[in-house]
What does this fold into?
Amino acid sequence: MKHDIIIVAKLHQPTQEILEKEFTAHRLYEAADRAAFLKELGPKIRAVASGGPGVNAAMMDALPNLKLISHFGVGYDVVDVDAAKKRGIRVTNTPDVLNDCVADTAMALTLNVMRKFPQSEAYLRSGYWETRGGYPLTTSLGGKTMGIVGLGRIGEAIARRAQASGMKIAYHNRNKKDVAYPYYPDPVSLAKACDVLMLVTPGGAETKNLVNAKVLDALGPKGYLVNISRGSVVDQPVLLRYLQEGRIAGAGLDVFAEEPKVPAGFYSLDNAVLFPHVGSATHETRFAMGMVQVDNIRALFAGKPLLTPVV
Ligand code: 8YV
It folds into this structure.
């Protein structure tokens, strides 16, 4: 007998195929009437494969026998973890397997925003190399300091790459870690001390608008901001204004406040490099993330310990 599960949002194809083969998988994202769908399945569901909009408290209430929310993504800010905890529902995420890809993306943004590679390529494609001469000089990474907000496993992978490019590392976490990098007790002092402020901290209420005008003022007109965490961590209208007014040197952004919406003002910025949330978006990494999601669901039904519990 196959167990019933709910799939919240369309998953990476191989993950979707495995779940649909091993379980009786119900697609919430195709339900015309969400409330009726949840009401009908309610008591049968012990596991949910989460992604996209995640799982809120109301959905948990509609599933009285829910034991596990297996979320696709290292970040799980779209899952109401406090509500899950209160109801005794476990939550898992997909850490580690994406560290290298996300760190590569962070370095790509750093390189691209400081060296203006996308702009210089566009310059060549416009035929300007021949007509106007060489592309204007840009800024070196070597010798600069990267200040990492959120030095976890992804942050460490970014630090290694930045060091390979000749950068120095500093960081801010809620608590000081046992690492050799200099620690700063708050984002403002870190921003003051660094050339590139790298955001790797989780999203959610605790970090909402952590990077505000004060932090950007501390970063200053020669400082760069790179965000591969969540758009919510930055006060986005303030960031846009600071970029337009040249109050910081530039920004490399993989994440935005209301994805996939990006305020039109960002499109015309010459000092920003913008990616459509591609941090972990490779076949290999998405497959590996999906397998962690699947293995957590398998573990639940096999009565084994969950692999990557958050709560
Ligand atoms: C994914 C991410 O793009 O893991 C995360 O937290 O932000 C990304 O790797 C996201 O989970 C949704 O596909």
